[in-house]
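Encoded backbone
================
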Amino acid sequence: MRRRRLAPLLAVSVTATLAPALATSTATAAPAATPSTATPSAASSPAFPSAARGALDRYAEQKPQWKRCDADSPAEFECATIKVPLDYRAPGGKRIDLAISRIRSTAPDKRHGVLFSNPGGPGGEGLYMPLGMRERLPESAQQKYDLIGFDPRGVGESSPVSCGLTPEEENPLRPYKPETFDKDVAWARDVANKCEEKAGDTLPHITTRNTARDMDLIRAILGEKKISYVGYSYGTYLGAVYTQLFPGRADRFVLDSAVDPARAWRGMMQWWAEGAEPAFDRWTEWAAERSEKYGLGATPKEVDRTFWDLVAQADEKPIEFEGQPVTGDDIRSGMRGEIFSPQYATEAFVELKKAAEGEPASAKRLAPFAGPEEPGTAGAAARAAEAPADNGTASFWTVVCGDNSAAWSRDPESYRQDAIEDKGRYPLFGDFASSIKPCAFWDRSVEPATKVNNKVGALVVQNEWDPQTPLPSGQALHAALKGSKMLTVLGGEGHGVYPNGNACTDGTVTDYLLTGKLPAKDVTCEATAESNEEARKNQKRDALPGSPLPERAPDRF
């Protein structure tokens, strides 16, 4: 195994494993998590015929063959591969590989249990997350936990899926235009068809529910009664689904930059557009207050006019910079992510105006407008041996489309209408978010989406100004997890909070991980210039394996 780039034992019976994990009905309200001395055996589950129960129990009897992950990694960072059922409804059928990793507690006498983590995605590789978690967690937390990582099913080194997509087919950022909509429909249909042709037998089972079941199987194999967890972005949804399926096995759960489970997944993409509008207004106010320095306008209305005038200019004649055209759509898409940090948005837009006027401009500052980087270019050589070049995109669509097919219309014309209407409501990104996606042509989900509605304790952590999972999204998850508390960072910018060097936020999360005690009430922290800068650095991090706050593309969670 290799060091990867990012695009983060208590004895129990081996049969104390999988029964709730394998239920195929929609989970609704679940009881609060309570301590127990034993967990139910798979043999007690009414969800499976008796002939299948022995196969379920045998999965939990696996003994991972731990070894050093690769020559460049620390000796204490160990990896192994286990087998899990492709289809938990038929555990005696096809099996797939699941790559797992660990770094053991630095103080076994102080050890509390295991701390799982997920970097987001869907499609984010998590095998090397323990390295990033170890770098960022305080020593006290490292003493408490074995740090556990894994590549989710279908991702990285866990039986990776591929649709055989070209780089152009991997680009989902397609603004609505009447003259190109038929082409966009053809793209969406082609992606779905290619995925079906190349991985049709596997795709229905690469879902969040099954990944949560995999997590519980890992728990059983490790001999643990419960797991603790830190999940970012998509990882918050995965964690929430785990609490719904396994309320009695969730210990200390930190859900950072949260997905609204009721809007998985089309509605979450539309949050990208809805959440951008208040951020855009905030940016115009910020820039207007500094008009003498930046010259974009003395009032928010003037800054707004300056922006849209440049968009119209670039729509008519793209801005040329270093041989690459920047269109009005590129400006809208690029600014969507930038405006959540007004200073960076202003500096980037000033450089874009320079380029439009033929003046020298900063290539670094213009990067947000350069269009999507070709998928698979960063670290492609390192990944080639383990995962297909389109694995990140293929696994993304597999989960986003397969988790909840009911969220996606089968009528292409409905996407046209939504894109037109939402471009009017949310002019910065509405048509990007609502136009057609491959999910319109995906097969029906094999299970209903999970309804998250329980009393399991968890800590939801959220920046006020998050471009990927806006504040209302985090508030919605907090409401669904009725035993949770919420930590809101007022003025916090960026996607991903913990850890960021802010004593209030880091202290609250770390205390919970160390003690298991949630705050008595919801917590509000004030962002600092330093913590926002740290978040900005984390967002741009592209080489640290397993960073708990990895660089995230504008079309991922």
About this structure: The first strand starts at residue 29 and ends at 30.
